[in-house]
Amino acid sequence: MLFYFYFWLMHRFKLKYTIVVLIFSGILFLGVLAYLNVAFFNLKKEKFQLETKDEISQAFFSVPYNSSGFGKYVVQLHADTTTQPGWFQSHGGRDSMQMKLKEIFINYKAVDSLIRNALETMDVAPVYEWKVGITRFELRWPDSVQEIVGESSDTYDEIKLFGNLEDEAKSWEYLFYKIGNNYFCQIQLFVEFTNFFNILRRQLIPVFIVDLVLLGLFLASILYTVRTLKRQKRLSEMQSDFINSVTHEFNTPLSTIQLVAQTIMKLPDDRLLKEKEKLVQTILGQKSYLHTMVEQILTISMSENRALLFDKRTVGAKDYIHSIVANWQKGINEDINVQLVIKNDLELKIDPDLMTIVLTNLLDNAFKYCIGRKPEIRVFDEMTDSRYLISVGDNGAGIPAGDQKNIFKKFHRGIQQTGVKIKGLGLGLYLSRQIVDMHGGKLAVTSTVGKGSVFTISIPI
Question: Would 378 be classed as within a structural domain?
Fold first, then answer.
């Protein structure tokens, strides 16, 4: 469905806009994939927190403390703050209280090892920072409450007892309340894990593998889509060029035939007798050209639909090639010297009609592409252990190296080195390779720009 959308987009607008949409789709896909990964990581993180919460809480709540000492300290604070206003400031304030509370809650210094032992029972070894502190402390009377540690502006901030954590903004919190008749104390443990990725790495490996597979599939689909769109665009352009070429190539001979016919109608009888042969030859030549183009189109259609008749017969190579070259020379109606060197007179098992099409196409191309110079066409053969090679060479413009792989494609007209438009539909070499392939052979080219080309048919013997 997505491909058809892109294909419609390409036809409705331009290929470059379709590529932009593909890039946007890729960015959107990566964004969604990243979001899902982050969400999955956070879920795993929360799951880890829930799994460790009970173990850490039990370890924290099980720590003993000097309850009698804490009770005496609270009683002393009641007495001092009642009888001596400003007692905290005169007796060291926060620092003095911190030292006294550390002595009372000295056992909380071992919370670190308790946390580590609790996590080891879960078979995890995270890196973490921790801190135990008093975040709220109140002295209570029957009719009033004095807040010593808390969030009010006139109280002390948290009093840190033990630990190495400096900023608890991202930490997990565990609360422990100590409540008596004359006090309320909230002791809080903060734990911040600093290597979640390493903790969850083993659990995330399958996710990363799935990510890579999805990313690979997405990139492959994008590349496939881009290649398909480009191919469809090229085929569409080729189809349009083919229709234009057919229109032009058919109109030219038809117009010539019409013009000759009109000339015959207008010529006096005495001149008609003198010009008759020349005019008839012109009509027959144009008719032959039309016939050749129609035959090419029909033969390709039959070949692609597997309806082409393939009738192998035994022919003598020397006589067969000589007759093809002779007939071709007569057909072009020009005095063209072909250097014909056929040394091997062996028996070939081929379809002579189809192979004639191949050799005629190669001879036509050798003649057509010798623009601006006298054609020098060579036809020669060669033998190997298992193959018979027939080559057609010329002294034409040559084919650039980058275009040689494209000349056997359907509708491809080749890069015009001379700037002169060459007649044809771009089907000859495509059809020739199809026919040679049917014989189990190969059709190859070697070419140098400015010096000419050599096309070689290699068929098994």
Answer: yes
